[in-house]
Batch of 3 targets.
Target 1
Amino acid sequence: MLSCNSVSILSTTRRSGRVIKTAARSFSAGVKFDYDVNRLYDTNYLNIPKLPIPEVEETVQAHLLSIKPQVSAEQFEKQVQLAKEFVENDAPLLQKQLQHISPEDGYPYSYIEKFWDDMYLGGRYPSMINVNPFYLLNHEKNPADQEQIRRAARFVNSSVRWWQKVTSGKLEPDLQRDGSPLCMYQFGSVFGFAREPQQDMDAMHYNPFSNHIVVICRNQYFKLQVIDDTGSAALSVNALQSKLEEIRKTASLSSDCKARDVGLLTSGDRNQFAEARGEILAHDPSNARSFRDVEDCLFVLVLEDATDVSMQDRSYTALTGADGSNRWFDKHQIIVDANGGLGINFEHSIQDGMTWNRWLQEAWHDMQGSDSGFSPLPKVETEFGDVEPITWNLSDTSLSNIQKAAQLAKEQINDVDMHVLEFNDFGRNLVKTWKISPDAASQMAMQLGYFKVHGKPGATYEACAMKNFWHGRTETIRSCTIESTEMCQAFLGNESDDVKREKLLKAAATHVKVAKGAQTQSGTHRGVDRHLTALKNIAELNGKDLPFFKSEGYIKSNCFVLSTSNVTTPFYDLFGFGAVVPNGYGFGYQTLPETLPFCITSYRSSPETDSKKMADAVAESLHDFKRLF
């Protein structure tokens, strides 16, 4: 289990739900994007501006404003004094050092990037639950296309052809509504990458021109070639369907392979996995090829035996599976259950939601034969594709390590308290008639819900995509504000409906300002978490343990008991992830036209949290809002 301190950086970087408004059809409006996929990471083809380094005084003032609801008046005054001493004494040198971290050319491409990457790759906690989020996609309208193998084949085919578009230099840039381009550096590594365990600091493995995927079925692994040797033709849907049927049939001939499922090691502690991987490689050098086949593949396809029907069961399958087996958490995984339910579990170290959404948008519309707003995917196909089993020669020590990983996975999964709130009473269409941003309304419902359950405001993180900056990833929208706290107090007090309505409108308007400040890095409510994180890391590198960063106010405001992210897309059923602190909640949500779905997670080991109680409080809060309009 992660502690508040160990996860404070993770919780401010891991999600990228609130997206910049984009205009898919404007890609041809004079924006030239000629690129080499091998150089996307290092080359600023579209001249995207660098993430600016804010002034320390502005960051500290915005930080003080954001923490005021979290602390007592006495604690706040103490924090003001500590902030004053920090700005006057220690901050100038730290800021000067920070300004020299990001060179004009070369890595790191932003002042936060090296600290950010080290946070992800240096975290020794399990990626399952703690790092990897999931999406659930809509079911197919045609029942024949919902059959497991048919659905997997169609989705794999569209995804592979989208990747051919990327690697051939044909991907159009994402644009903002004003026509300005967004950063595209992440697209060169969507497929063909893997997180590779190493002691203390993991590495990333890349092979964008891989021509195969790995299929996992009943804890058995298969290498399936999906692009021909020339790189020009993708395996057709019919050929994929035939190969996947063959794999499923072969896998059904063997039973109880979980004891030898090396993928279970990816669900656990990173140092333990690094040690276990080293033991497997030392035992038999031929095992290196098996690891390489998995790590080189474009992505992993999981054929799942589960027959999930409810959204909650589908969510557990996508987040962890029944017991952590039949998975490889160091790769993107497309998971198709026995009923054809399709979910995706994302390895999150180097990419964020807007990048995944672009892949899924084009693949989904290709499957449906509808217009994605971008150019069609290439349609050169082949009927030939090799299938090879992937096996490991394992020692008794390795089998024991797998058994230990299985036990740890079981403990982790049993600790997750997940509840899906399928709020179908109304959606964003009605909310807009209140003259309130749908995202702001959802955030205020979570604020009020938390206050109802816990009797106090809770430090809140909402992810904000920062692709308007070169190598920008996310910034934190600190949704718990003075205005949202006053709103909660009004609803739980004896105030009139007029006062409640006024407080709600004011809190929602402030939330919009906070979100804009985070995205643009400007204004009274500017984002503060990236800047303060960088300064704190530099202080630690200098051997300084500064009172400002040790203070109760700073620590409390960074312990995000509400970690939230909005990934609204019409063909997603749900989005979710694990809570980022032991006594907190994870909220993946959408603001759809007629529904407001939430996936809420917490931990059973915490005596403070209850996902079902929180879900009921959020639903009640939404009805409280509706009653006022």
Target 2
Amino acid sequence: MVTRDALTGWTATEVAEIRMWFSFVTVVLVTMSFMRWVGFLDYFRLVFFCSPAWLTLIVAPFQADRSTCKLLSYSCVLFLVYWMTVHSYPSQCRHAWGTAMVTDIAFWNNDGAIADAVLAEKNSYFAEGEVSDRERLIFWPKGPPKNATDLTPPSERDSIKAALAIIKGEDNKTADEIRIRKWIESWSGGLSMNILMLRAYCNIHQADWHIPHVHPLRPFGILNNQASWTVPCPYWSCLMTEARPRGKLPFLAVIGLVGFVTYLHSRCKCTHLTCFSWYLGAGTPRLFWWWLWAALMPLCLVMLIKTTYDDEFLVVVDHLFHQWYDPLRDYVMDGEHSTYNRFTLLALVGLLGGMWSYRHRIRQDLGLDGYSFMSLLADRGEFSYDMQLTFQVCIWRVDVSQATQPKATPGSPTAAAPPDTESNSTEGLDTETSSSGPGVRSLMLCGSAASAAKRTRWRSLTGMFRRQEDSTVLKTADGKVPSLSVRVYYGLDEVQSTRSVKPTQDQWWNHEPVYFQENFKVSVEHRPKAGLRFELRDMTAAFGSMSLGSMTLDESALERLFLASKRANPQVRRHSVPIMQVVQMSMPPPITDDQEEQQVAQLKSLGFDQHRLTDGGAVWLALYETEED
């Protein structure tokens, strides 16, 4: 059962997430302190690269769900913030260092100075030196070879001339020459001589006190005469946004490390270190990780783009668009196979569109409705199977249309009809002395009973063309009146279902509600993140039972409905609420609009509410959490 603390009003899940928040605050503070005082990281990179963690600690506690729209909006906002931050400071600093290199007459076009700088850059990657006695014992346990000879290095400038000649060489090279260029690519900054020169220039000036400064607000249109704020550009700012096609391993390492920690935290519940797992809130998926990934991916994407393309955002978008569009255009416009390629592309687009249109039906048929890949991967439900969830389900009626308050029918013969039995659609029209009360066909307007019956039979043949239908109205594939049944699923398991009720022809045409008035008790083993799904099915469809729509209540929605049932009507004692739900739901269906409004108000005071289905229509139901028998 989902219980709340009497003092704080928090559930056990919320308390565990609070402990997890405090534990991660401690981890983030310790990590940032270590990077600052041991790794000597400057404040900008410290705050910038740790921003996904501390932003999640601020934002995640105020989020009650992981809505896709909210996560995408949050990621898009952070992407823009990260892009503007990188573009206004590190990118400007790299351009400032490049300008300083070109305007330095002692370095630019000075082959000797360039060779010395490139040699220093090379030595920072691959240095040459004597082997110490300790290294001889470690790496040469047998001693050096008998015919070993020492390398005789040439002069420092001559040793780098060959490498510079290879880097400056033409692009059209043989396979062996390309392989040689890749050997020196790790320290040369790619295959560009200018990139190597800028790295070498920044390297030899990294300890200078006189370095370039930039105006961070200038990219936003604020000139230096409006705001004279400048920021120095240290050595790391010269290399942070270096555009090179390779060297993306750090991104994969960061994503892999965070993914491993996410999976380990969701799965790990140590039996020997229970206090440790209890403090970290481990052993079950948490919303914290969804918001952390929503902040981490924009940062990685911005840095990935900035370290690949040294351009403005729109220029990068245009380049990426043509990188994907031009091959597709060439494929479609291929003169020899253009017709075949177009039909293939059209069939592929049609297949993807059909799969998207019927995605809910596909997930239901495959048994994946209510589950996601991450929940199947990270859920560790065996640690929560000792918790039993018992509740009462009351299903009042199904609204054929999603109208807020649809009109009620007199007497509602559906409520008392036996399963799979259709009431006579001409009931009340067999005598000409029938009264024309509310909900009864008026003979003064509709003619004789025989003519009314004929029109009814004719309308039954053309109902699928004359029935008003849109996205908010229940509909069947063959246009016939269905036999409705509501099935209840917890996770992937069907736990209960109602009897089959078939509305009359008039009810189905006029979008009138179909009354079920059923209640039952459900007792399941509680599983984290498992939803309660209600599916409306047509039991008499031509190809067997078919789904007409569904609605899913996640864990938080279930808890809200439980609380609504207990708090909506304070005059009713808590133990009598489920009884009152059944009694009020079993009242005869209303005849007039005033009676319907009154009954709906009474039902809502007991926790009933209208829940819209995915393919039109809605179901009225209430839930009440009870004690296990």
Target 3
Amino acid sequence: FGLRALSWVCSCRRFSLAETWYTMEESDAEDELTSFLDDVDKEIITEAPPEAWYQPKAGDVLEVEVERCRSEGGEDRKLHKWTLGSPAPVTIPGLDVDRCVRTMRCGETAFLRSKKEVKAAATLRLLSLERNEDILGDGRLMRRTLREGRGWKTPKAPCEVLLRFSWQALASGDKIPETGQAAKEVAMSIKNGSCTGSADWIPGIYGLRVLTDLRVGQRCLVQLSSELLSGSPIERPPGSGPLEYDIELLQIFTFEDISLDRSEKIMKKVTREGDGYSKPVEGATVKLRIQVDGAEREISAEAASGRFCAALEEAVLSMKKHEICEVRCSDPEACRDEELAFGPGLLVVFLLELLDFEELDVFSSAENQRVEYCSRRKEVGSFFFQKSSWRQALKRYQVVTSNLGYLHSWKNEASKAQAMSLRKACHLNIAACWLKLEEWLEASKACDAVLTDEPHNVKALFRRGQSLKELKEFREAEKCFRKVLAVQADNKEATRMLVQLRQMVKSEVEQQKEMFSRMARGIADTENEATELPPGNDKPLEAETRSSLPDSNSSQLEVKDDALEEEEDDGTLTLMGISALLACAAAGYMLLRRSR
């Protein structure tokens, strides 16, 4: 607990420092902008495109068209290119061009007029911007962006990217002719902190660092120092220095694990992004185009109805309209489908396109319609449960409980009663699914949801007792089965479980007694080594300590009555607790004596 608290404090401190730094930088930028607006009037004529979010900084290479407005009439339009921070190639009295450009974005056109005594005005058009970045902060990995990308999507593991890149060796800053690799298109896989796919790609983690924040269509030059190339299979000519890569990001293919157990046995690769943000809900009618082994067909079905295999049905629920994806399934059970007749093999691959789907808004529907919808979902869940598809059944039951989570505001009493009964049945079925999957804690939580409204529900008590038994919570499990017998005295299964639990509790008590006995003997031996016995006292401390503890080998009385047996166990635990306190006190006393 102390380590967690310390970690939390440190993380808060880091966050506080980062937030302070960000606030200071943001404040400085605002002050600079306020000072600039005090000196210059700026009117934006043409807005920059939405993807052009970056504003120039020192070290960036700019190409700006400057159109000067002369007082005697006429205009002077020239194209200038320079590195920001160095003296600007154009000088306009009363107007700092370098400072004006820092407030613009690529593609923007602005009219600027000086407020100073020396009146000056000009129209600036930022045509191109080459960003220079020191990725590692020490000059070993430099990147210059020649063309900005589009959109906001960047590579995030796990994913696959399509690149066009070439490389060439440098010597004294110049390219060495007839060396390097011509431009080629390569599909690179990004996962587990690495980027693989081509032997002559930037080695190690540095290749991943270069790609991390690129966007589709972005082109850049990357210069890699010689010391980062150690261990690389790239053959360079003698005397050559760093390598320069010309990289263009063509496309990003995202991967998503759609397997219900998150085992990565069913992976979806998005080859074309869909429209909008909405996705099909369970029970909605969907229209699909599927391609298997070169054969293409269109199908119309109800989403998550059990008609097709799990790989297809789970993929459909994760897609957007007009999205195209490639599904790779390595789980034979999840891709077994009689209608689609997937070919045999360890890996099944098929293409899927969502052409259209029915828009269903379950939460906005009438109360009786919502009950009908949830009843159909429960039936589908029961269909999967009978097929022993526990996770598919579990997901259908969870859809019902999430749709019927809050019933306090329902006005139709008949629909409300049906919904509460349906929700209770699905919670019990969820608990049964979790027990089949051996997820004991989740099963206990599902039973608690039922017992909150109905404390004496026999199924919930029994299944909670089963889960607590597997969690080694024997006493709590015993209480659950006692409550079951209080409601159903002839429940043979609960009686059998109760007998098993009594034996487990006794065995646990004996083990704890033996453990505390060994602990006390060890403390007594340590004390005997550190101190001598007082004169006239011929009884060893070990014997005194042993005599103060309950005998772990003494015979247990046969008690027939359940209440007396439980009282005896409680007394044993009390003695064990007292023994533990005495042992801890003795250990503390010995440590204190030794420190003095």
